[in-house]
Amino acid sequence: MSYTAPLEDMLFDIEHLARIEQLAQIPGFEDAGLETARAVLQECAKFSEGVLSPLNAEGDKNPSVWKDGAVTTPPGFRDALRRYVEGGWQGLQHPTGYGGQGLPKTIGAACIEMCNSANLGFALCPLLTDGAIEALLTAGSDALKAIYLEKLVSGRWSGTMNLTEPQAGSDLALVRTRAEPRPDGSYGIFGSKIFITYGEHDLTENIVHLVLARVAGAPEGVKGISLFVCPKFLVGQDGSLGARNDVYCAGIEHKLGIRASPTAVLQFGAGMVAGAVPGAVGYLVGQENRGLEYMFIMMNAARYAVGLQGIAISERAYQKAVQYARERVQGRPVDGSSQASVAIIEHPDVQRMLMTMRATVEGCRAMACVTAAAFDTAQHHPDAQLRKQSQALHEFLVPLVKGYSTETSLELTSLGLQVHGGMGFIEETGAAQYLRDARILPIYEGTTAIQANDLVGRKTARDGGQTVRAIAAQIEATEAELLASATPAARSMARRLCAARQALLDVVEFVLGTIQTDPQAVFAGSVPYLMLAGNVLAGWQLARSLLVAQDLLRQGRDEAFMRAKIATAQFYAEHILVKAPGLRDSIVEGAGSVRALAPQAF
Amino acid sequence: MSYTAPLEDMLFDIEHLARIEQLAQIPGFEDAGLETARAVLQECAKFSEGVLSPLNAEGDKNPSVWKDGAVTTPPGFRDALRRYVEGGWQGLQHPTGYGGQGLPKTIGAACIEMCNSANLGFALCPLLTDGAIEALLTAGSDALKAIYLEKLVSGRWSGTMNLTEPQAGSDLALVRTRAEPRPDGSYGIFGSKIFITYGEHDLTENIVHLVLARVAGAPEGVKGISLFVCPKFLVGQDGSLGARNDVYCAGIEHKLGIRASPTAVLQFGAGMVAGAVPGAVGYLVGQENRGLEYMFIMMNAARYAVGLQGIAISERAYQKAVQYARERVQGRPVDGSSQASVAIIEHPDVQRMLMTMRATVEGCRAMACVTAAAFDTAQHHPDAQLRKQSQALHEFLVPLVKGYSTETSLELTSLGLQVHGGMGFIEETGAAQYLRDARILPIYEGTTAIQANDLVGRKTARDGGQTVRAIAAQIEATEAELLASATPAARSMARRLCAARQALLDVVEFVLGTIQTDPQAVFAGSVPYLMLAGNVLAGWQLARSLLVAQDLLRQGRDEAFMRAKIATAQFYAEHILVKAPGLRDSIVEGAGSVRALAPQAF
Questions:
Q1: Which residues form the domain of B487?
Q2: What is the pLDDT of residues A116-173, one digit of tens each?
Q3: What is the count of structural domains for chain A?
Q4: Beta-carbon separation of B570 and A564 below 8 A
Q5: Per the database record, which ranges form the Acetyl-CoA dehydrogenase-like C-terminal domain (chains A, B) (predicted)?
């Protein structure tokens, strides 16, 4: 089924929540105002709808295939990547110095959402390339940057992240891949990596693997891990491609979803590549033993992008469900107003499902948009104090964007399937693919539990709750505005937002008061805390949206859209924000029962 | 991975919640006491664990295959069905007069759960046969019963339910299949049916299709639908198999899950079967135009059984997750108590996920067990007043068992996958299959919305809330017992159960007070009402379990089990029952926002 980019909603968020015209005051972003945003988003919509979306179901049906170390991607993917490169989409958010367009993340995020809505299995490739670019920008030497960045930013080469090993998943301290210094300053890399997204494929001329490994004699644990660049083809000083490096793809996984994308097992230095000199050649990124530190810097970007994938797949599922609900005629109105069968979109329960999808997607999108704006401000604003505040806000929001948008994507894609009834269970219908694709999102780039650990430790406890309390104060100000506006929708939102904010603050007090004395009790509720915080922060953005929409409605702007925005926000308040007090009770009063059963008693 | 039937939990429910020794006082159930239950369950566990479970993953990997109208089931399925027949499992709950064992549903339900945990794709075949048996027992003439029942009860023939047509899913009023009376008293059946589970297969000698069709000149809508028996092979008066009937399997579906089971498109009377006389021969069941009425009688049985499937697949997912969490070593304790990596079952968030699975499964199982006991009492107790009460209780509970146990199975099988991290997304791990299999359960035999319509209309409004209020009074009595016991677990449960009961009663008042004036508002919250009621009723059974377990613990019986039961009940109270007030708010105060968006505005 076709995909239509939700341009109006995206531009509403960019204009009114992220306040792009304020961002455009920042030096370097002078050309990145609302009109630029609109033009870029419209182009990206054309590309996503016209090029990527038509390949989505096919890629699921004809997944990437491995043979003798090589991977063939689904039909059409090579051509799509060529057009992606031609359009300059890879460089959107990257520095102009390396051929990028240097646009704010506030604009780039919308484009990433579109590409992932259109074709998540495809869009993963550029997403990983973004990660490699971030890593090199963060810590790469000038020499590495000179050789690799332009090619990556153009999209002609792709990037990968080689973290996971069979014994080292969430716990990267257990990485065993070895790096052996060689006389020429490079390293020999030896070891096996698993779950490497686009670890091998036929889309680009070269693949730039970023690899975590341990130099001999390095300290145990996380402080002995270094980061290396390990290209598929060795690269000359002039950027020309040389011999094949000894990186062998030993197979790809048979997965529940994102089947178009190859998930590779890679063997470094195993002497398996025909014609390659045995021993994979790697180049140190930054300093030895600081690999995880660099990873954490870029991880915020990657985690944020996966959060966008959650929004993207939910949006796609929503559009499909709406389309089916409009077309499928079944059942008479429950109020007996007619004896004729009606489209199921007329039935209240179908409306409830669609509204749940719509409200959650819009809430998550709004939260993600504001998170991007915080990033742009933190990176580029001339005011140091504002940069610092924005950085704290951004960092607090990232685990919420990642965790909340992906966990909810499971519920929403499942609801999308439910709207289809029995047809939803038939693969040809296409609704099931979105559920299958979504299912990896709360797992990769750090499971929801890992995001929640980050939220509790780095983002809440470390600053003594300062950031979250500052956010709560802003939410309280929004409540006051809602009460002042006094419309029924605003009053309903104010009431639910207030209860939800208080629930959040209760939980923050619990976390801060308990983390030292009984950390297990805090971590028993860490994921519910994340879900609560995500719920409140997304709800807050819809509360702001409601106020804006009321104002614009009074000005006579785009009545249908503004009315829908107000209705959607009110639905969110009454059906999603209302969950907050229950979550509070579970977290604050139920920590004991989570751990009451000894492991052997399960 | 292996499956171990949760015999201890099942027998706890049967003994203490269903009170099987009281059921065994009922004439006809004299031999069906606790010892019989134990013996039957132990045998069924052996069969499920040893015969059905090992075929489960294989059946998913090698689904049923269609070729030229015939369907070949996965390897091993024919042999498993032969052993199912030999063991007499099909006849467990069916009348001794037709070769069954006449055991109470209270015992039979546990066996159905086991078979479905072990192999849902297989167990669907006997489940549909049960449906055909119920239909014939309900409305079949003596002649039809004589020809078909013994074969079906033995399991040598299987049964199917032919309801759905492309335009007639949830709305059976739209059925178009025609039945033309023939001089010999039989009917010619003409039309296409879709989504027919085990509509064609190679497991049994004959397949007995129960088919909804319209006799020419019948009234429009639901009052013009009749029920017919239409066997794959025609049957002589002596029960011998004759010629092939004109019922053609035109294909089977490519499904998200339950892939072992063929889901057929059947064409009746299309002249497609080689060697068959054109025109499918059907035999009227009961009277013309009363087909839907008969279906509704047996539908409670089928819906109840699908609820058991929800429990079954969640139990299986739970066991797999526990096993993985015990084996997978990753990460150090969050309290810093050790620098060594531990099994992930030591981590609080993994415990939270496993407890969520365990508590919900045990709550749903307890509710299903009590529902079965109500059925047995309603069908067989000599006291007419008690029969009537039990029937009302049973009928109220059926949509909850179906709706709540299957909706929660989506969350639980998804959590089971999450416990596996990245491995969960790899098909070979097996966790994904449970999620895929579960996804049909809230759809077939009536979607959750259809269950919720039933709950609102037939089960709440029709008796003016009498049944649900009577249940609430019993819950209140349980709360008093909990408060009297005064342990911390009992007090916590009493508090949450009381709040949940009040939330439920608020919603009932809303439903009763609004259904006449604004039915759309009621149906906007019908599924949340079902989820709330299921939550409370399952929680109530765990509250009763908690009280029993405390008593037995004082008596020194089975300490580990009783302590775990108490801990699990308390977890349910603090993490699941706590959702009730939020649901109440959504239903009672949020009906307007569900329908605020016009269909064209989505």
A1: 464-595
A2: 999 999 999 999 999 999 999 999 999 999 999 999 999 999 999 999 999 999 899 8
A3: 1
A4: no
A5: 472-597
